[in-house]
């Protein structure tokens, strides 16, 4: 990787179409803005219409002439995921950026009954990518980039308790969902290769970036002291969202990105320019990847026609 790679190194994206989930704030907003700056048409796939349209306006103000548009998507509701895929407005899809996520929330369930972190971070994106697969297959050089986290190291998945029903611990559940992101990329890359597809499935993580992800869970529970600690960490320790988005942008656009690669910040995985990132050995387990894939198809009802297992 080029030393000091930054947003100015993004190749020309004219004529390309991208979907960025969770593009209304944080690294998703930066990712969408920088892709639009380089000429891509970008769909801002967001749950909240007001915030999604505000993001659209912010990007258009920062990048005059930007081709961005809000599109409603609630990853916690599979009916919304299906509606998004049905209404998808283009014949091509060059970049699917699975960015949206939740972190360390109190126990909850999605509209379909899944534990919220597993349901949003993994199953919603699994279903979205599967439903959009025909568009990806029809687009030469397409990429799927899933945003994981160094916190995947907190826990492997438990295939017998994917919804963390036996003993819910918020950080363990978050780690499991981020492991699921990496296992999804691992298995998707394997299936794409077996099918002879040139789609690149890769993963990235932002290190410690200052976003609202850290404070959402404690704010839901009105834990003021914990909220202040996270806010302080964001100000003093974290790198800005503009830097945290660079690994995602690299994985999405840089030449030569390898399938099943994992890109993160260079300096101890916390901050700095994009570089290959360490990942737990369990995220490269073929058997675990296939078992999670089969379970995800069963839970979501979304299969992936055209891909060999």
UniProtKB/TrEMBL annotation:
Keywords: Oxidoreductase. The keyword Protease does not apply. InterPro entries: NAD(P)-bd_dom_sf, SDR_fam. It comes from the Bacteria. Belongs to the short-chain dehydrogenases/reductases (SDR) family. This is Oxidoreductase. It comes from Streptomyces sp. 900116325. The lineage of its organism: Bacteria, Bacillati, Actinomycetota, Actinomycetes, Kitasatosporales.
